[in-house]
From TrEMBL:
<dbReference type="GO" id="GO:0005737">
    <property type="term" value="C:cytoplasm"/>
</dbReference>
<dbReference type="GO" id="GO:0003676">
    <property type="term" value="F:nucleic acid binding"/>
</dbReference>
<dbReference type="Pfam" id="PF02601">
    <property type="entry name" value="Exonuc_VII_L"/>
</dbReference>
<comment type="similarity">
    <text>Belongs to the XseA family.</text>
</comment>
<protein>
    <recommendedName>
        <fullName>Exodeoxyribonuclease 7 large subunit</fullName>
        <ecNumber>3.1.11.6</ecNumber>
    </recommendedName>
</protein>
<feature type="domain" description="Exonuclease VII large subunit C-terminal">
    <location>
        <begin position="124"/>
        <end position="457"/>
    </location>
</feature>
<keyword id="KW-0269">Exonuclease</keyword>
<dbReference type="InterPro" id="IPR003753">
    <property type="entry name" value="Exonuc_VII_L"/>
</dbReference>
<dbReference type="InterPro" id="IPR020579">
    <property type="entry name" value="Exonuc_VII_lsu_C"/>
</dbReference>
<dbReference type="GO" id="GO:0006308">
    <property type="term" value="P:DNA catabolic process"/>
</dbReference>
<feature type="coiled-coil region">
    <location>
        <begin position="375"/>
        <end position="402"/>
    </location>
</feature>
<comment type="function">
    <text>Bidirectionally degrades single-stranded DNA into large acid-insoluble oligonucleotides, which are then degraded further into small acid-soluble oligonucleotides.</text>
</comment>
<keyword id="KW-0540">Nuclease</keyword>
<keyword id="KW-0175">Coiled coil</keyword>
<feature type="domain" description="OB-fold nucleic acid binding">
    <location>
        <begin position="8"/>
        <end position="101"/>
    </location>
</feature>
<dbReference type="Pfam" id="PF13742">
    <property type="entry name" value="tRNA_anti_2"/>
</dbReference>
<dbReference type="InterPro" id="IPR025824">
    <property type="entry name" value="OB-fold_nuc-bd_dom"/>
</dbReference>
Length: 466
């Protein structure tokens, strides 16, 4: 018999099991892979956390999702801080998740912050070490991928804003394994070439993993020790890398980097116009001061007409000199404006296109001439070969005719008909066997005798031997 006090209802038993689990198993961290992820309308997340052997049900309630900065997906490797419990309604063992982090990304963030703190303590980000961008730029070096849209954006901005500068592309992969080493090599090559006034390190936006090549410590130190001023334009404005902190200037986008590296041609022209206006004002003011000074001198004159004439000559001389100065200054400004206009025209592709068209036309003409000469040469060769073939054929036919005549003569000389025509004959039996001895014939046997003009059939009457 059993004791009634030892009988539990299902709910009481599961409640007891739940208290036992919660009181004896502590909250802990687990690592595994997400599967069977569900997001019902309640806002809670339900999934299974599994490894290569087992799995366990998990629940992440909506209030615990406030600090989750990513969207979980099936197959994602994660770390969870969870407390074990028993869902009494179904009797299922499950984990109540309190905190969740993706495996790998969390480590990258930690590595980023540790390296940032280390380089900050060493002074690599100190503004006192930043190099000032040059005011006059002739050549801009760009470290980026030749296959991406970044270099095209930079070229487009520079052609519109400041087409006078040359662009040198130092091609490098900007993502994936080995990308940091390639970028370092490109920066060293650009810096050692001493051809660039400023360098732009650029690439498009991406995730933390995509941009990780720009968070390597070795790359940061190469940027820090570079002699050429460097502008970083990595990712979007919200993306931040170690390279941005150590570079001399950070641009929010590659296009903005091109604008930071160069002055605007319209601003330069506006500045020239303002300087010209200021110069005219200064000349006018100077002329007014000179005129006022002359007026004062005139007031001080108490000499006769000779001194007045002398002063008048001096005035004319100064006025003429002042006019020459004004003309010289205006001509100088016109010459500078003409030089700027000429430089703009030189960068136009129209002359290069015309030159390329002329070269193509000359090449086509030369090619047609060479083809005509080659065809004419082959025609002459074909005619000569045809004549030689006809002569060789004629000679071969004559040789064959002579050989045929010789063979016919020899056959005629050896023919048995020729022998028969001289009085000889050939005797055969009915089996067409030639009779050369009397023993081969018998009395009464029919024989055939071939002469030069026909055959005689006869019967043997008698045989005599010599």
């Amino acid at each position: 018999m059993f004791n009634l006090d030892e009988i539990y209802s299902v709910s009481n038993f599961l409640s007891l099991c739940n208290k036992t689990v919660e009181n004896n198993i502590p909250t802990c961290w687990l690592q595994g892979e997400i599967s069977n992820l569900a997001r019902p309308a309640s806002g809670h997340w339900y999934f299974s956390l599994k490894d290569n052997k087992t799995q366990v049900r998990c629940a992440l309630f909506r209030l615990n999702q406030r600090n989750v900065k990513f969207t979980p997906e099936n197959g994602m490797e994660i770390l969870v801080r969870a407390a074990p419990t028993l869902y009494e309604a179904r009797g299922d063992f499950q984990l109540i998740v309190q905190q969740i982090e993706p495996v790998g990304v969390g480590n990258l963030n930690l590595a980023f912050e540790q390296l940032k703190s280390k380089l900050t303590d060493e002074g690599l980000f100190d503004p006192s070490h930043k190099k000032i961008l040059p005011t006059q730029v002739n050549t801009i070096g760009v470290i980026s991928s030749s296959t991406g849209s970044v270099i095209q954006d930079i070229i487009k901005v520079l052609n519109k804003r400041y087409p006078f500068a040359d662009i040198l592309l130092f091609d490098s992969v900007v993502q994936g394994q080995g990308a940091a080493a390639k970028i370092e090599q490109a920066i060293i090559a650009a810096d050692n070439s001493q051809r660039c006034d400023v360098l732009i390190i650029a690439r498009g936006g991406g995730s933390l993993e995509d941009l990780w090549a720009f968070n390597e410590e070795s790359l940061a130190r190469i940027i820090y020790h570079a002699k050429t001023p460097i502008i970083s334009a990595i990712g979007h404005e919200t993306d931040t890398t170690i390279a941005d902190f150590v570079a001399d200037v950070r641009a929010p986008t590659p296009s903005a980097a091109a604008m930071l590296a160069t002055p605007d041609k319209l601003e330069l022209l506006s500045r020239v116009v303002k300087l010209s206006s200021l110069l005219r004002q200064q000349i006018a003011q100077n002329q007014q001061r000179q005129q006022a000074y002359l007026d004062q001198l005139q007031l001080r004159i108490i000499t006769p007409d000779r001194q007045l004439n002398y002063l008048s000559q001096q005035l004319d001389y100064l006025s003429h000199r002042l006019g020459n100065i004004i003309t010289s200054i205006v001509d100088s400004q016109k010459f500078k404006l003409g030089s700027l206009s000429s430089n703009l025209k030189q960068h136009s592709p129209e002359a290069q296109i015309k030159h390329a068209i002329t070269l193509n036309q000359l090449s086509a003409k030369r090619l047609n001439q060479q083809i005509s000469q080659l065809i004419q040469h082959h025609k002459q060769t074909l005619v000569q070969l045809n004549i030689r073939l006809k002569n060789a054929t004629r000679q071969l036919i004559n040789q064959q005719k002579n050989q045929l005549a010789n063979h016919a003569y020899a056959l005629e000389h050896l023919s048995p008909l020729s022998t028969l025509s001289r009085g000889y004959s050939i005797t055969t039996n009915t089996k067409q066997q030639v009779l050369t001895l009397t023993t081969q014939a018998q009395s009464g046997q029919t024989i055939q005798t071939r002469l030069s003009d026909g055959v005689i059939y006869s019967k043997v009457e008698k045989i005599e031997k010599n």
